[in-house]
């Protein structure tokens, strides 16, 4: 019999991911702090529960998609949380981006209840969530990875088992380092070229065709050239992710010098009131520092 799937956290990412599971034919039990977002998806294949505990009581697999470690801890271990209602043999799949250290602690707590846990953070943004083309990096046992396979296939395209508990989160931190540093490099290139008199679109055309080519140039082109920074992926979330990466660096004794600089740049953008903007708005910090906004010939 098909497994009943609980889904907690129906935000920018969670809602389209849950919708793709429903469309793939799975039966869902939904919970969202703001109930209306869960009710939007309710129907023949999806019912709404009143708490994470109720979700767990009715589900074989429970997926969480929440902002950060404290929220995942609260939803799993808090009063009326998942672990209060979890069934023996159930599988928890946390798809949020959180600390690998917190993940391992939560997996141990799930085990004490006779359940198990995968960390399965994603990349691909809101578009990947809507299209069901997310890249999913999974830490945990091979057996649990196989069990969750049909669910991952409904939500993603590149699905990789990277190792034991916590390793999915480590790979996600690595991913977030590369994305942040690439956005920063593209921003510097754009402001330098533009202030020196080159049309910004031409800079990206040229960079995109050589060794400097990267997906940030493709995916963020319109936002950066048009200064349209509606998220997308918010600066405050990317700042959270670099915090996770830096903490992991400290834990494992790895130097991440440039990640630390870009982390501070994101902190500055938050202080400037731009934390809710798309992470490509890192461009605006280089512009502020250079007294030049690309594209308008400003000084
Ligand atoms: N957005 C992206 O492009 C993207 C890409 C890859 C990975 N991610 C990661 O995916 C995760 C979710 O991101 P998102 O963009 O979907 O965030 P979001 O839109 O802010 O959604 C967060 C969800 O968590 C719920 N929530 C927040 N605090 C809660 C609490 N204390 N108890 C219960 N529920 C709570 C929110 O409920 P309400 O509806 O009540 O606010 C909402 O459903 C994050 O870890 C993020 O880093 C995001």
From TrEMBL:
Pfam families: NAD_binding_11, NAD_binding_2
Residues at the catalytic site: 172
Record key words, sorted: NAD, Oxidoreductase
Phylogenetic placement of the source organism: Bacteria, Bacillati, Actinomycetota, Rubrobacteria, Rubrobacterales
Protein name: 2-hydroxy-3-oxopropionate reductase
GO biological process: glyoxylate metabolic process; organic acid catabolic process
Superkingdom in the source lineage: Bacteria
Top EC class for this record: oxidoreductase
Gene Ontology terms, MF aspect: 2-hydroxy-3-oxopropionate reductase activity; NAD binding; NADP binding
InterPro entries reported for this sequence: 3-OH-isobutyrate_DH-rel_CS, 6-PGluconate_DH-like_C_sf, 6PGD_dom2, 6PGDH_NADP-bd, HIBADH-like_NADP-bd, HIBADH-related, NAD(P)-bd_dom_sf, Tartro_sem_red
Family: Belongs to the HIBADH-related family.
Domain 6-phosphogluconate dehydrogenase NADP-binding: start-end pairs: 4-163
Domain 3-hydroxyisobutyrate dehydrogenase-like NAD-binding per the UniProt entry, residue ranges: 166-285
Organism for this UniProt entry: Rubrobacter tropicus
